[in-house]
Design goal:
- Helices cover 22% and strands 27% of the residues.
- By secondary structure, the protein is of the alpha+beta class.
- It has one domain.
- A four-stranded antiparallel sheet has the order 1-2-3-4, with helices on one face.
- Strand 3 and strand 4 form a beta hairpin.
- The termini are far apart.
Amino acid sequence: MSSTPAQRDQFEVSPKGITHKPTGATYTPHAGAPYSGNTNLGQLGSVLPNGEDYRPHEVQMLMEQLWVEYVEANPRLFEVHD
């Protein structure tokens, strides 16, 4: 069985983090530190009920890339004001 490719449109990105919608894998940043946070793999690494099988490293690499792009495009969302 071949793996299912991860695609940009499968991710939901917001100031609260990023989610790979098919697997539920998420990254949630710590307040004021967008590059430090928690990752929850959801169903990543398992064959989904619909037969889709995503490669964990591929999803995580794309998730990281999209998150960096989002933070760089929206730096004011992550400013900390004392």
